[in-house]
Amino acid sequence: MFSAVRRLLLCLMLGFYSVSVFSASHAPKIGEIAEQQTRYIASHFPGRMAGSPAELLIADYLMQQFKSWGYQSDIRQFTARYSYTQTNGQQSEQNVTGNSVIAVHPGKEPQQIIIMAHLDTWIPLSDKDRDNNLGGLSLQGLDDNASGLGVMLELAQRLRNTPTRYSIRFIATSGKQLAAAGASSVLLRMSPEEQKNTLMVINLDSLVVGEKLTFISSASTPTAVRKLGRDKAITLANQFAIPAAIQPDILPAKEGDFYREVVLFDNTGIPVLSVSSGRVEKKQYLPQQRAVSKAFPEGTVHHQAARDNMQYLDKWLPGRIKQRTRDSVRIMLPLVKSLAKAEK
Predict the structure, then answer these.
(1) What distance, in Å, lies between the first and last C-alpha atoms of the chain?
(2) In the chain, what's the furthest Cα-to-Cα distance?
(3) Which of the listed residues 5, 125, 142, 185 has the most CB atoms within 10 Å of its CB?
(4) What topology is assigned to 31-339 in CATH?
């Protein structure tokens, strides 16, 4: 249950947001909602680590956004554990109660498309992480993963009144670094029939900093489904002159890294399309990466509180947030309509 104080804080935030973003009389352009939501989530909900007060607030905020557009939406709790390592090497086990958000756009048939993005930011796992300013209360996580949430929210807003043959389920998961605990909880609650009827999961993650938008299919994705998802996405990107790339399939061996949720669903035989940004180096795809530079000495802003924030990215990548959120929506909106069999 949310405390009265947290509810009051959220109401104040929502009130501010409704005035500052949605008071314009003109219809928002493609990508405008995604950019505004990305910036708002990053700046107003920093430190949204699984189980933290900020995570509770962002979960409730997302649920209220979905409900305001007429979706059935609720919060699903889960439990997880992780080890924290002190400087002296001593470890302690930490318990977490996290929160994921689900919203449903019902279709006429039982099949469904899932659009997924993780809502949490990095939890420091050691004193070393804290000393290096990785994760923690000040991490805005604009790229990782306010950007994925922003695109998801614009898709939900634009699809709210669109009848579709197949259902669309929007899932904002938490606990990504905790063995994808939120996504795992969602999957465990799905019946075998629901899993069978899930035609594709589209996972949106870290869309801004990498050099190109990239589309990758999970290993078990059938060729026909790959053509409808990954190949259709790159065709749309080429049609709109958006720099993008496709890469070899995501294999289960990558389970411990960026693709936690992807591999989790892939292991059950559910096809996944990973939508992210990154670069290719020596024929290897590096998610969240760009060329090493003075502003990006590690070629990434992954988990870095000093760099993965709105001010830093606006300074060193001017116009990129607007460009990437717009490009992502331009590709994903017609793709999702096609996959869900939207009525014209």
Answers:
(1) 42
(2) 63
(3) 142
(4) Aminopeptidase (3.40.630)
